[in-house]
Design brief:
- The chain has about 400 residues and is an all-alpha fold.
- It has a single domain (about 5-405), classed as MFS general substrate transporter like domains (Growth Hormone, Chain: A, Up-down Bundle), CATH 1.20.1250.20.
- About 75% of the residues lie in helices and about 0% in strands.
- The protein is globular, with a radius of gyration of 21 Å.
- It starts with a helix and ends in a 7-residue tail after the last helix.
């Protein structure tokens, strides 16, 4: 088994799904603009994505080792290749719902399989944490690439025969390329492979993890973090268009600063976590994010409609607000690594399923609440809302650290 090629394949898969998953904010903006869908109705796209992730993780996560990690990832890539082609050929709000449901289904298979594979190909907890940070960092580079490629086609559609939907031809090609690379990569799964297929037993294995108080605190932390990240990430393009008065293509492209910031935060966090341990780093990150919101949101008031024609006209807040990603970036991979590294390898697939379920529920909750506040009050009020889950996450992390220090896994 060539570990380097396996790592490369996992990185490419996460890059592709970084584009697909986080295009939901862009598509929400586009369906509002092109199909006349209300903000509260458009926010349902986040639910189609996240609830399909939660459902598949809940039902199938513990069965993925039986089916095989490689087979699961190949299935996911085949599904998204087909769905991106269909989105281009049969555009509309209904097709967008189907697209994000298929993306959610596929990402559940990819992430559970990838997280479990990391446990096979890494040697120790430090190696595990390091590669997890790189993996999630590459995911955010995919997000960054997605904002620019969508922005290119949105901008080109105003002066040529291209349409923003032509982006999906490019995405279909990327998905197919990832499929071919994985297909030609060997993965030895014998360390976690077990014989037999007992649905009730495998399902129980995942649910049984919740008997540990540590797991309960962890999933609450994961829920809160993704609620924060998705409430910002999903609605930032619409915030840029509605509040900061940016042109549509620019509203999308400037969000790439958020993706780049998160990628930077994740890729650089490995050094700081090794030097200071993860709790001080994550505490500093959360406090930094809260301070940034408090300082920048007041700067977004009073931007006159039509005042922004290009990058040189954009208010300073448009460039400062996405920098919240530097502080948010380190949190998620560090949390996930902290729980996976204390569990046996044969339990990591089930744990990855729980991570997916509560992350998905957090993402949907954050998007729906932010969309509701945005439509009823203002974009500023909606973004101030993020301060509440940030405060809760900071408190929960201290309890999590204390419980994790004394944790020892015991079979029942």
């Amino acid at each position: 088994m060539t570990k380097l090629k396996i790592k490369l394949s996992l990185l490419i898969n996460f890059f592709v799904f970084g584009i697909l998953l986080n295009s939901v904010g862009i598509v929400i903006l586009q369906v509002i603009e092109h199909y006349g869908v209300a903000k509260t109705s458009a926010s349902i796209l986040e639910a189609f994505k996240d609830l399909s992730i939660a459902a598949i993780s809940f039902l199938l996560a513990s069965l993925i080792p039986k089916f095989g990690y490689k087979k699961s990832m190949l299935t996911a890539l085949a599904v998204v290749t087909a769905s991106t082609i269909c989105m281009r050929l049969f555009d509309g709000f209904l097709m967008a719902k189907i697209l994000f449901a298929s993306i959610g289904f596929s990402f559940a298979l990819i992430k559970v399989s990838a997280y479990s594979t990391v446990g096979i190909i890494t040697e120790n907890s430090d190696d595990h944490a390091s590669f997890m940070s790189i993996l999630e960092g590459i995911f955010m580079i995919g997000v960054l690439f997605g904002y620019w490629i969508f922005g290119f086609f949105i901008q080109a559609s105003t002066s040529s025969s291209l349409t923003w939907l032509d982006t999906y031809w490019v995405l279909a090609l990327l998905c197919f390329t990832a499929f071919v690379i994985l297909l030609t990569t060997k993965l030895d799964e014998s360390a976690v492979k077990t014989e037999g297929f007992k649905l009730v037993h495998e399902f129980y294995e995942m649910i049984a993890l919740a008997r540990f108080f540590l797991i309960i605190i962890f999933v609450l932390s994961a829920f809160l973090y993704v609620l924060i990240e998705q409430s910002v990430q999903t609605w930032l393009p619409t915030f840029n268009k509605s509040i900061l008065q940016l042109p549509v293509s620019m509203s999308v492209q400037i969000v790439s600063i958020l993706a780049a910031s998160i990628a930077f935060g994740r890729l650089s966090s490995g050094y700081f976590i090794k030097k200071f341990s993860w709790l001080p780093v994550l505490s500093f990150s959360i406090i930094g994010a809260m301070i940034l919101v408090l300082l920048v949101i007041p700067l977004t008031n009073g931007v006159a409609p039509g005042s922004v024609k290009g990058w040189s006209d954009a208010p300073i807040a448009a460039f400062l607000l996405p920098l919240i990603g530097i502080f948010l970036g380190p949190i998620y991979p560090a949390l996930n690594s902290s729980i996976l590294s204390v569990l046996p390898k044969n339990k990591q697939s089930a744990m990855a399923g729980l991570i997916m379920i509560f992350s998905a529920l957090g993402g949907t909750t954050g998007s729906l609440i932010t969309g509701f506040i945005f439509s009823r009050n203002s974009g500023q009020t909606a973004f101030y809302f993020s301060l509440l889950p940030m405060s809760l996450l900071l408190i929960v992390l201290f309890f999590y650290k204390k419980v994790r220090t004394n944790f020892h896994f015991k079979e029942v």
